[in-house]
Design a protein that fits this description.
Elements: H1 3-11, E1 15-16, E2 22-24, E3 27-31, E4 38-42, E5 45-49, H2 55-65
Antiparallel strand pairs: 1-2, 2-3, 3-4, 4-5
Helix pairs in contact: 1-2
Amino acid sequence: MRQDVRRMLLARGWAQDDEFILRKDGALWTETNGCRASGLDGVGYTIEFAGSVPARVIVAACEAAAIPIPTRRSA
């Protein structure tokens, strides 16, 4: 299990649901198999991480995905 990633994301304000999926501002991260692989989902994209990807790389990608995109205001 990627407890390293899970701990870092929870410390950064991600919320864990009953199915152990972590969520923040429309981004979702979860482990995808028993080989430490995981995935990041958002609106219109999915990124898969092999089990060998360092935790800090996954956390950085997740944090970037969770940055809210400001809506455009009409004039």
